[in-house]
Amino acid sequence: MTNYYPKTIQVGDHKYSINTDFRIALECDKITRENGEDKAYETCLAIIYKLFGDKCLDDVLHQIVSINDVLKLAEKYIWCGKTKEELVNEKEPSMNFEQDMGYIRASFMSDYEINLDAQKMHWWQFNEYLQGLTENSVLNRIRYIREEPLKGKKGDELQKWLEMKKQVALKVEKTEREKELDRKFEEKMKKEVIVWTT
After folding, report:
1. For the packed helices 22-34 and 123-131, what is the interaxial angle rounded to 10 degrees?
2. Which terminus of the chain is more solvent-facing, meaning fewer CB atoms within 10 Å of its CB: N or C?
3. Which of 171-192 are b and which e, b meaning 16 or more Cβ less than 10 Å from the residue's Cβ?
4. pTM of the model
5. Domain tally, the chain
6. For the segment 185-196, what is each residue's pLDDT rounded down to a tens digit?
């Protein structure tokens, strides 16, 4: 495990503390997933505020520092110093921080005897521990089921795998656009009076 976990960012002559608690990075992940392209600017401001605080947000809004420079550093921090290219994965995701938090907590307890609810942990350290979980951890057993290919499986074996995959499947999250279309449809249905005739 690395001994260096960043605690500050430097933008030109300005230095800002990072809120390094892993929960903050998870909140940023949630904000990014929940807000669509229509709210991209608000999403960026929310992430800047969460990670770097009032002073940084104020400096961005008053154009003392460049929002693009701050976002590049936020991205680098969230990706634990890796580039986007290093993180690109063509496979379907086998984990979702929000949906799998129960499995993550149980796995940290069983593998490391760490109670995440009582632990303040740097985001990078959290990720290192997450990657180091044993194959016997509940999270990695769940991920194994999700990632197992069905090709070549037949009959009872196929049915067994289909059932297991269904039990641990990730819920598909709707995009902001899909949620908006659902809201408009519901509003339209409430306004329209349907008269049934025989």
Report:
1. 90
2. C
3. eeeeeeeeeeeeeeeeeeeeee
4. 0.80
5. 2
6. 666 555 555 444
